[in-house]
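Worked Example 4.2. Consider the chain below.
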Amino acid sequence: MESIRRVRRRLPLRRAASNDFVGYEVLLDFIRERSLHRLEGDLIEIGCFMGGGTAKLARFARRYGKRVFAIDIFDPSADDTESDDGVKMSDIYLAFLQGRSQLDVYRETTRGLDNVVTIARDSKLVSFSPEQRFVFGFIDGNHRPEYVRNDFDLVWRHLVPGGALGFHDYNFGLPEVTACINGIMSEHADEIAEIREIVPRHIVLLVKGEHGSCA
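Applying the procedure from the previous section yields the following structure tokens:
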């Protein structure tokens, strides 16, 4: 499919080789800039794909005695959301995997990182104890709006004041995702202290206000 080939050509080889298709360095820079690693809590990622970003978060987090919770259904055919050029996300994932098992690739990429807590489930079926706290979260899972909203709620209720939550694919060929995120930001405006958009990476980060509630 020509549209899939175009997508693959757009991704830098360095990031493809590390199984990080987002560029997690910008997220780590933000965490350091805001000293989020000094807050009390762990990190969470929803949507791991091949584990490159998970591994980068985990290597950073273990320096500070923190865990990375990684949630993914590990079924590359599960997300049938279409981009504005008519390509399904599932087709893109399958093209990159080239017949390999997503879970096997993820396990190999994260091998040896004992601070990763992998939750191989549909994110709608995941919950955490009231005591769980997160200082940073990143959402790049199923792109259907009901999942975007569910994943936000799952992380936000456990995010500590001053912590940050990021979304991928903001203003990038998935208009329903962008509209859903805009709706979330509007509805939670009184809980959000700052919004930072990283345009080249199609990422938007929400910093939770100091008076925001936590489960």
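Helices lie at 2-10, 13-17, 25-33, 52-61, 89-97, 102-109, 145-156, 175-187. The first helix runs from residue 2 to 10. Compare this with Example 4.1 before moving on.
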